[in-house]
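#dry-run=false #mode=assembly
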Amino acid sequence: MSKLLKIGYLLFLLLLLFMAVEAYKYRGNVSFDPEEIVKKSILKDKTFETNVVEIVSENGIKAYLFEDHTIPIISIDFLFKNSGISYDEAGYEGIGNMVSALLTEGAGDLDNDKLKEELELYAIGISFGVDFDDFKGSLLTLSENKEKAYNLLNLALTKPRFDDENAALAKQRMNFALRMQSERPDSVLGLEFAKNIYGRHPYSRNPVGQKQAIAKITRKDMQNYIKENLTTDKLVVGISGDITPDEAGKVLDKIFQGLKKEGLNKEISAADIVFDGRDVEIKRKSAQNIAIFANRALERTDTDFYPLYVVNYIFGEAGLGSRLSLKAREEEGLTYGIYTSIVNRQKSDMLRGRFSATPENYYRVIEIVKNEWKNMGSKGITEAELKSAKDYLIASYNLRFASIDNISSMLTYMQRYNLGIDFLQKRNEYVRNITLEQANGAAEKYFNDDNLIFISIGNFNREISGENDNGK
Amino acid sequence: MNKLCKISVLAFLSVCFFLENASSKTFDLHEFTLENGLKVIVAPNHKAPIIKHIVWYKVGSIDENLGKSGKAHLLEHLMFRGTKTVKDSEFTRIIDENGGDSNAFTSLDFTAYHQTLDITRLEVAMFLEADRMENLNFSHESFEKERDIVFQERKQVVENNPMGGFNERYRSILWSNHPYGRPVIGSDEEIMGFSYQDVMSFYNSFYSPKNAILVLSGDITKEEAEILAKKYYGKVKTRDISDRPNPPVMDGGFSGVIEVSLPDIASPRIIKDYIAPSYNTDKEKIYALMVLSKILGEDETSKLYKDLVVAKKAALSVSSSYNAFARSYGSFSFSVYPKLDLNINKTLQQFELSLKKSLSEITEKDVELAKKKMLSGLVYIRDNPGDAAYIVGIMAAIGMTADEITNYDDSIKNVSFEDVKKAADFLFGSGQNVTAVITPLQGEINE
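#status=ok
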């Protein structure tokens, strides 16, 4: 081979090497690196301030306020503590619910029709409701109609009419709602679950009310309910949107003026749920069995709350990516959905999950839940899982600010559960500070026992279970 | 808690629309089209550093052949099962780690994939969504598992609801051989009968930039949106869309009343549906029909409510709704919950009388008042970027232009008393309709 050829050959080899390196580099360019994308994103520096202040009105009413003038709307959320379903007097179960329905059905000089005309014409949203702990209300208005909105809300709270016709219709609708509860297996299960776990505690009540009690409620009873419950000593308020602190103070007095200062002090005990590993099967013909499973959890302000929260996220709350969903749904195709969450009320805390599956798949899913539960208790989570969960919780933080009414209800929640006025600033820190030891400590403590209970509805037949694939 | 205008998107659509006064538009929409045919609509909202990112494909169960219902929906599931670049379920994991809330839905007319994200993570979602627009590549094993999951979904969503099965039959009677009469999710047999190839070829036939719309609603400018749309979606190769037969013309088919007793039903009810004009079949009438529905049966100040519930005391509730946003026909619907102690056939009679009476009593003043109510709350749509993304997306997906969407308020404002009368005469004069009177099967009520 001549020298020249040799050199040419070498050059050719070098060229090939160069091309290979370039090709490799190019491949590097198209391969997908989410972290790189975020680091280089032209949108990476966008952020905003989330500032909450506490305001106190001249009459001494307190509220949290989140100011945001981007859009000319105002949202006000409020609740009266310890006036919810569980606090209805015995024999009057359903009265809070009925009052909440009737407050927007006529007030002062305005009968139901006239009041609804005003609300619709000026796009004012006023609504009331009850949960197991509290009586709740909310207002949503355009800035340009705010004075009218405040007046109407004050009228609804202080001068409800409870016209006979409307009261009669409200009762019929409540009876209808009670009847409709038997239609779907999931709503039957929800009621049975509450009865089973809460026993004689008022959390076991039917959220609509009790049929005989509803029938006998009078206008006088409802007026008394208001005197005893809708009082400023029980009031918690969150305000957000196009409003200044100064104005918000005045608005508080305007809206709640006329309410009594002190109501009837009512207490109920903490719910003492027995988690003893029981398995309750309610028979009903249906296409799928539905199961609710539960175990103890902890209070919202407990120091272990965030460690347990992150463990539960990994276990069953992370949507399609949770351990339960990966096993039961993605890997085995047994169910459309399975998830868990921590449910905090004032008087009970639990970790609760739910799934539905055809009878053939049902016992296999139960087995998966039990195995995963044990596994979580004995082995805990990995460093990688912790990092991944923290990434989600921190990066998704701003999504809670999507709507102005969600912000005001968050402010009310922060006060009701004593999270502190700086909660929004501190929340990501709480998440960031969770250590693997803390998380696994919580996993061991709350996932380690055999106390998990299952309450289910459907067709139970262990023999057909697993015999054929999906019954098809 | 139900706040005004914070209800489901469809109800929202029919209740209130856009704009609050003549000078300010509810949306400041920007529309452009990439070279590959992808249409992009941007709805800036700088309230919080978040964004709703949705890709709408103009393909739904209307495009499925007889006996193949549920294909579009099964494909929607499989879109989460991996591409050539992003394997298996990595899509979900990556979106999760970036704080995104992600899901998808399939309807009669379209399929949509959506994420809500912190704005700083948008580009990750854009990469992933653009990637699965052309590179879908799920395994056979994933296919089989996902088919099982959809089978379970049908049991959970349709069959575990005592009205679910009947609703499917009701729609098939109303729509006859029109594809709107078939269930979006498909039947058991259809779901389990699909092959890998069925779904893949459906994807290849309809998933293409030129059959899709990208909606970006949130903390982004038109300029930023253009740069990023080009960067991520610009390189997706365009594919030709398969021909789709026009759905059948619906005239003079079956109209009538069906009476049915169902097990597990707790309480009687009446539903009635008219096949109605839509944006795509009879654009001229849709705004008048929206006003008409508002007057007849939306909210407690409506004519039907005042007559049937308040004056006659014949029902616990009555409502109407109208959907004009369809690729084929629209629908105009009523729902009545009778009082528990009344004979249901009597209630039906009363309802029909109320409807006639209400229609004959509509005045010019009613029309003006209804329009005012429809327009007064539109500013709320500017609050949550998610609401705007859905509303704009649905309208764009069935073919409306950004201009038509932005001018919606004017279209409502321009509706006259005569327009409403004419539309009402047309619909209630010759509209194909079905009424269902549903009662509990004897002895099945457990109280």
